[in-house]
Amino acid sequence: MLKFKCTFRNNGVSEGTFLRWWAKSGSLKNRLTRIKKMDETLPPLFTFGVIADIQYADIEDGFNYHHTRKRYYRNSLRLLRRANEKWKGEAVKPSFIIQLGDVIDGYNKKYNASETALKTVVNELDKSAIEVHHVWGNHEFYNFSRDELMISALNSRTTNDTTSTMSEDTTALEDTVESGNVSDTEESYAYHFSPAPHFRVAVLDAYDLSLIGRKEPSVRYYEALEIIQAHNNNDDLNHPPVFDGTERRFVKFNGGFSKCQLDWLDRLLTLSDEKLEKVVVVSHLPVHPYSTDPICLAWNYERVLSILHSHKCVVCFMAGHDHDGGYYRDASGVHHLTFEGVIETPPESDAFGTVYVYEDRMALRGNGRVADRVLLYP
Ligand SMILES: [Zn+2]
């Protein structure tokens, strides 16, 4: 059953007043029944599936970097298949699936198996015949260059008719940076789409500013180098600079968002505010320190948070990367969901969810390690 949590956050009604109204309007039991009925009988406006960190590779099980978590490289494909079966059998078939990044593991590169592994997971996803929106994570860049990704099956921006870069609504996402006589145009993999009237999804590129998602002589590569060197003196930049706190995020396997992309997001959310839309923002890297181990945070997460908080339309921010998952509803009412990774999910469990979208809320129905949650609108 879905969890229902009633909060009194920022609504200007005291708990006492609310309870008095509650008592007048019917017994607690009746009210709860109505809530339950509403959850289980009213059809959603639409639904969508979410899955994170599949990291498939045709290799034996292994462990994470610190040898604290087992990784089930082949089983991850079986769990993807199980998620697909569930989505295909849903009474309301999901309108789309969000794949939150790291769809195949970096080990594939070592075994020259990147293309084969990608084909395997894409074939599996295709079986559902449901549109998939792919987010790019660090493992995408361990396997492929940005140019390769742009023309691969993982570029869902170009394969979906319903998607658009911001260029159609406001200005182009492409950033032209003048550097002496050199004009450097750097494209981000960020786009948005509207799955239903008054709803929008924004897909962000968390490696827009990074050492793995950009290559020399990219201006953004040098900008990323400057950022990481200001915080991390280690020879191995995948090793965090400190043992504790949010400074640990300054590692090579993370990245951030360029100013251009953040300006684009700000403009997009301004338009969504005007259109009274509800927006879901997705990225491989989480942006709230309470929704993840801080080592997984995007470098400039504070900037993203300040943009999210300056708009009324944002319902939730969904991310992957931290395989343990996490959840936090911040003071502005934005739900931060970090999805548990398929790769560290044992064969007897699962890690995926289906989001049911209603007029007044979204309800996440989790499977296995992913918990059920009601996401009331801010
Ligand atoms: Zn990752």
Account of the 3D structure:
The chain has 378 residues and is an alpha/beta fold. It contains eleven helices and 17 strands. The protein has helices spanning 15-24, 28-41, 75-89, 107-110, 114-126, 138-143, 146-150, 156-159, 219-231, 259-274, 301-309; strands at 46-51, 62-63, 70-71, 96-99, 131-134, 163-164, 175-179, 182-186, 191-196, 199-203, 278-282, 314-319, 326-329, 335-338, 351-357, 361-368, 373-376. The strands form four sheets. The protein has a seven-stranded mixed β-sheet with strand order 6-9-10-11-12-14-13. Strands 5-4-1-15-16-17 form a six-stranded mixed β-sheet. It has a two-stranded antiparallel sheet with strand order 2-3. A hairpin with a 4-residue loop joins strand 16 and strand 17 (373-376). The radius of gyration is 21 Å and the shape is globular. The model is unreliable at 1-38 and 166-184 (pLDDT under 50). The protein binds zinc ion. Residues 102, 137-139, 284, 321 line the site of zinc ion.
Q: What is the overall number of helices?
A: 11
Unreliable residue stretches: 1-38, 166-184
Helix content: 25-40%
The separation of the N and C termini measures: 23 Å
